[in-house]
Amino acid sequence: MLLEIRDVxxxxxxxxxxxxxxxxxxxxxxxxxxxPNGAGKTTLFNxxxxxxxxSSGQVLLDGEDVTRLAPYRRARRGMARTFQxxxxxxxxxxxxxxxxxxxxxxxxxxxxSRAGTAWPGGPDSLxxxxxxxxxxxxxxxxxxxxxxxxxxxxxxxxxRALAVRPRVLLLxxxxxxxxxxxxxxxxDLLGELAGEGLAILLVEHDMTLVMGVCAHLYVLDFGSLMAxxxxxxxxxxxxxxxxxxxxx
Length: 248
Ligand code: ATP
Prior knowledge:
Number of helices: 9
Largest sheet: 6 strands, mixed
Order of helices and strands: EEEHEEHEHHHEHEHEEHH
Strand order of the largest sheet: 6-7-8-3-9-10
Structural class: alpha/beta
Radius of gyration: 17 Å
Bound molecules: adenosine-5'-triphosphate
Number of strands: 10
């Protein structure tokens, strides 16, 4: 497993948001994390990226314990994320948003940029214009980021995350604000990126996207893992249908 959490518990005061959760994200495939609102998905993301320290349990990146490592240090080790609420530099252009991310990566090459690591898209993947073309934003490269509709903003977030040449990509509800055709294209792109060796964790409510692109799924409910497996077995699980799939 490239990214793993082991027996993670998070308490907010008396409220248990995650209760002994273990899961893994493998290179070369899209792993899905689904569950009802409030199940703990964003909390889990924040534990993975280092925004939140778990009350107990461990986070391992490529076998190394990173539980107490700051978010920027995890980013240097190859972790990139997008947010449920868009976090773009609105006053910069679309291209500048990606250039900035690419520059951050070059300033801090670190030991994890060693040769031989699989970068999605090959050596050109760091070229900001090529990245924008890849996510379908080439034509709007010179627009201010805050003028983009949400769907395009989500793809800009993806381009920016890819610009740091991650090994693990964590996506928090990337389909929200994208229409059906955009979401389908986005899913194809995720499949390609995984095919190039990237490890992707997808938190998403759009079940067409989740079932179409994920090789493995984890289902959270009230802070606990209620099921895991391939999309077909998860979809057929009566507990999952009752707790979640019946509602989306
Ligand atoms: P959604 O699908 O709506 O984004 P989620 O699965 O991401 O939901 P979380 O946002 O992780 O769920 O929340 C898990 C639980 O923890 C919820 O009951 C929520 O109210 C609670 N919670 C989240 N953040 C905090 C906080 N900072 N302080 C107290 N409770 C919190």
